[in-house]
């Protein structure tokens, strides 16, 4: 049995707490490795190494720091297949999807190569007689990030790339369910030229997270995961005086207008609802056709597409649409919610409960499910299912559809499918959701824009990646400088306007 490590101060370090968690191969159900769960002392060792390494890195000019990012991009491309294979083996997602996970992180690293431009400050020449004012963006010091299982390459890179490009040290506490890729990324950063101690991986659970939350040296915390944990980390981190951004769960609605191209809408829904087995925070989990006639047409298009979905292990390469879910508990939870949907009166149009895959009986596979006539009081509507289950809620009108998405507690992503530019504009303007797609089902913004949800999907005031990341990982210092030709009048005692 493979025993995974922490990565502290440039070295793989065995866990010393005596506590481990199982890392599964979700396709077979076998335990393939043990992940060490750090004690507060192990976290302290990483913080000490980070604190020692950070000042010299902060003093390295941003162009040199950017060159490390440039080399890291080259290494990510070199090792793309290796990373994707390790990712699929622990997460279960298909091989092409695992490459996409690495790629979407890599694109943020590419954006961070622009650090010298992004870190330029502001300058006012001649704010008063002999007076200039300038603002600098300085690194925070030691930063930490806590990441979820569903994007073990992309989300760590969304955090550590801008943090490091800004001159910080970064401690990553990845998900204990798929920790191998984060460890590989830390090694690659050092191969790219990052000095030791600046990117460390401390594996663990709540014990390590609480040690991060309470450590006085750690200046900022980025979190992505489920909403209850996001809210907990935001509250405790902020009350400890840290800068915190937390991104939580989702329930993304896709509104299908009567004038939409129904084939396009159905294709989009199948990809966005079932891709990665629905384990995406930007998955569409609720289809909202407007009008019964639209709903009937949409369901008729969806059913044959869903019935054709190929579910299998990542080793099948391109020949599979989605893989297993991450653990047996996740599978049981999803199937439990399916049962609750049936019990609460939703109509199960495609039933994936009996799905079995020959040769992979121990795997955590869940067949695709489609519900029709779901209503807002049902648990399958209120809760994030995070599995291959699409719910259809029939809306009587456009206004009813908009209200549905507006009233849901989550506000990560949403989409509208229509040919009507006026409806699309109105929707984009009024909806209280952070990321909106117009005829685009999964509107994940590219690296140079920012990513973040509203309502219970996001806590904090800055988004991930794009320009916001450079604000989150720096603080502003403003200097008012006077270089008089000589103070002839002596001291000044009144607080004056600079005129
Ligand atoms: P999770 O909340 O269970 O775990 C996330 C991280 O928190 C992990 O590193 C885990 O070790 C840690 N953690 C778990 N329980 C904890 C506790 N009690 N105290 C302290 N730390 C704890 O989430 P997950 O199952 O890994 O990921 C799926 C969730 O993440 C979904 O809800 C999904 O919507 C969400 N997600 C959101 C976004 C976004 O950008 N909004 C992106 C990806 C995933």
Report what the structure shows.
The protein has 499 residues and is an alpha/beta fold. It folds into 2 domains: 2-248 and 457-479, Aldehyde Dehydrogenase, Chain A, domain 1 (3-Layer(aba) Sandwich), CATH 3.40.605; 252-438, Aldehyde Dehydrogenase, Chain A, domain 2, CATH 3.40.309.10. The chain is built from 16 helices and 23 strands. The chain has helices at residues 40-59, 62-78, 80-91, 95-112, 115-118, 154-165, 180-191, 206-214, 227-239, 262-274, 292-307, 328-343, 379-382, 398-407, 421-430, 466-472; strands spanning 2-3, 6-8, 11-13, 20-25, 30-36, 122-128, 131-139, 142-146, 169-173, 199-201, 218-224, 243-247, 252-256, 284-289, 347-350, 369-372, 389-392, 410-411, 413-417, 435-438, 454-455, 458-459, 474-482. The strands form 6 sheets. Strands 15-16-17-14-13-19-20 form a 7-stranded mixed sheet, with helices on both faces. Strands 10-9-8-11-12-22 form a 6-stranded mixed sheet, with helices on both faces. Helix 10 (262-274) links the parallel strand 13 (252-256) and strand 14 (284-289). Helix 2 packs across helix 7 (180-191), helix 3 crosses helix 4 and helix 10 (262-274) crosses helix 11 (292-307). It starts with a strand and ends in a 17-residue tail after the last strand. The mean pLDDT is 97. Bound molecules: nicotinamide-adenine-dinucleotide. The site of nicotinamide-adenine-dinucleotide has 26 residues, from helix 8. Residues 146-151, 173, 175-176, 205-206, 209, 224-226, 229, 247-250, 281, 384, 386, 412, 453, 457 line the site of nicotinamide-adenine-dinucleotide.
């Amino acid at each position: 049995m493979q025993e995974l490590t922490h990565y502290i101060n440039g070295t793989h370090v065995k866990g010393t707490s005596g506590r481990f968690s199982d890392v599964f191969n979700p396709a077979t159900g076998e335990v393939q490795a043990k992940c060490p769960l750090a004690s507060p002392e192990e976290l302290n060792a990483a913080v000490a190494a980070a604190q020692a390494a950070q000042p010299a890195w902060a003093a390295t000019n941003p162009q040199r720091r950017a060159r490390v990012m440039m080399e890291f991009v080259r290494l990510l491309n070199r090792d793309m297949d290796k990373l994707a294979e390790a990712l699929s083996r622990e997460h279960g997602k298909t091989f092409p999807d695992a490459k996409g996970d690495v790629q979407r992180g890599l694109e943020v690293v590419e954006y961070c190569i622009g650090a010298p431009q992004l870190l330029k400050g502001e300058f006012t020449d001649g704010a008063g007689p002999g007076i200039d004012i300038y603002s600098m963006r300085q690194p925070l010091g030691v930063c930490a990030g806590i990441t979820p299982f569903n994007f073990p390459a992309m989300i760590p890179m969304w955090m550590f790339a801008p943090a490091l490009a800004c001159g910080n040290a970064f401690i990553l506490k990845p998900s204990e369910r798929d920790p191998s890729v984060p460890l590989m990324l830390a090694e690659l950063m050092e191969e790219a030229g990052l000095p030791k101690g600046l990117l460390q991986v401390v594996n663990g659970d709540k014990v390590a997270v609480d040690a991060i939350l309470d450590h006085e040296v750690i200046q900022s915390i980025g979190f992505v995961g489920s909403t209850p944990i996001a809210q907990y980390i935001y509250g405790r981190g902020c009350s400890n005086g840290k800068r915190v951004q937390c991104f939580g769960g989702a329930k993304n609605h896709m509104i299908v207008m009567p004038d939409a191209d129904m084939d396009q809408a159905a294709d989009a829904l199948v990809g966005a609802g079932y891709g990665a087995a629905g384990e995406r925070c930007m998955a569409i989990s609720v289809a909202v056709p407007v009008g019964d006639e639209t709903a009937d047409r949409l369901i008729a298009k969806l059913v044959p597409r869903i019935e054709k979905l190929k579910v299998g292990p990542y080793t099948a390469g391109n020949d599979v649409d989605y893989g297993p879910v991450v653990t047996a508990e996740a599978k049981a939870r999803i199937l439990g919610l399916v049962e609750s949907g049936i019990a609460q009166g939703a109509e199960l149009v495609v039933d994936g409960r009996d799905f079995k895959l020959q040769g992979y009986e121990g795997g955590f596979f869940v067949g695709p499910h489609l519900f029709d006539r779901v209503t807002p009081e049902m648990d399958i509507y209120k809760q994030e299912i995070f599995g291959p289950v699409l719910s259809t809620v029939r809306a009587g009108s456009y206004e009813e559809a908009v209200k549905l998405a507006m009233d849901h507690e989550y506000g990560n992503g949403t989409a509208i499918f229509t040919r009507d530019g006026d409806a699309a504009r109105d929707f984009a303007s009024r909806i209280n959701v952070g990321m909106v797609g117009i005829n685009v089902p999964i509107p994940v913004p590219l690296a140079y824009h920012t990513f973040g949800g509203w309502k219970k999907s996001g806590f904090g005031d800055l988004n991930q990646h794009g320009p916001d990341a450079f604000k989150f990982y720096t603080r502003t210092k403003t200097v008012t400088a006077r270089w008089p030709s000589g103070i002839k009048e002596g001291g000044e005692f009144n607080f004056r306007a600079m005129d």
